[in-house]
Amino acid sequence: MAYECFDVAIADHVATITLKRPDAFNTMTRGFWNELPEIVRDIDHNAKARVIVIQSTGKHFCAGMDLAVFTGGPEANPSAAARAEGDRWIAAESLRHQVRLLQDSFSCIDEARIPVLAAIQGGCIGGAVDMTSACDIRYCTADAFFCVQEINLAMTADVGTFPRLCKLIPEGWVRELAYTGRRLPAHKAQAIGLVNDVYPDQETMLQAVHETAREIASKNPLAITGSKVMINYARDHSVRDGLDYIAVWQTGMFAPPHMAESFAAKQEKRDAVYPDLLPLRKSM
Predict the structure, then answer these.
(1) pLDDT at res. 67
(2) pTM of the shown model
(3) What is the pLDDT of residues 42-86, one digit of tens each?
(4) Residue 194 phi, psi (nearest 5)
(5) 6-217 adopts what CATH topology?
(6) Domain spanning 221-268: which superfamily?
(7) How many helices (H) and strands (E) does the chain have?
C-alpha cells in the first residue's frame, strides 16, 4: 500500500517505517497522524514482523507538527468552528478528543507487542520528541538534536512528551527543555540516557540499528513481548505490583518447549527457530 508520508518495508522479521518527505523536513501533516497508527497496528496486530525500526530521510528526522493540521474548514477542525460560533465550552470538549486522537497516534508505538527502535538524524523537534519518546530504544547521529519546540510557539507540549520523557531522563532536564525550548545535542542526549548510542553519520547509524533489530528479531518473540509488557508495567507501577504481575504472566506464558529449542540450537550451533506471535482477532 502506498502512503503519503511513509515507506514501509519488511525483511528478516524487521519492519522499516521510513518518513519520506525530506523536502518538507518530514513535518507531521494530517496524513502522518492517520497513517502512522494504521501502519504500526497493521504490523503489530497481523504479526508481520518481530521488530519495527522508524527512520527518516533528508537533513532532519522530523520538524514536528505541520501547521496545516491546525487550519482548515469546520469539517477538518470542528473545535475551531465551535469557537467561531462563540461556544468555547463545546469547543474545549471537542479539542480534548482531537488531542487524544493525536496522542493515540504515538501510544500505539508504546502499546505494540513488539519493540520499536528510532534512528534519528538532524532535528527531532516538537511532535517528533513525542513520537520517539514512545519508542523502546532511540539512537542518533552526532548532528542530531532534540527540541521541545512547543514552548517556542507559546503552547504546552500535549501529545506525550512529558508523561514519557519524565520516565526517560532526569526531571531537571525535562524542565529545562520544556521551559527554555533549547536544543539538546546528541552527546548530551546520550549522557542523560535519552539515546543509547551516537553515530558519526546516518549510514553508520542505520547499519548498526538494523543489526540490533535483526538480533532482537532472532530471539523468542514470546519472550520479547513478555519483556516489553513487563518493562512498561514496571515503569507505570510499584515494584511489588511489578513482581506480582510477572509471576502471573509466567503462570500462563512460561514456555518450556521454546527454552528446549534454545538449548538445542546452542548445542547444535544453529539459529533457534521460534514461532511468531499470532495475529490478533479484529472482531469476535
Answers:
(1) 77
(2) 0.93
(3) 999 999 999 999 999 999 999 999 977 766 555 556 555 556 567
(4) -75, -35
(5) 2-enoyl-CoA Hydratase; Chain A, domain 1 (3.90.226)
(6) Lyase 2-enoyl-coa Hydratase, Chain  A, domain 2 (1.10.12.10)
(7) 11, 9
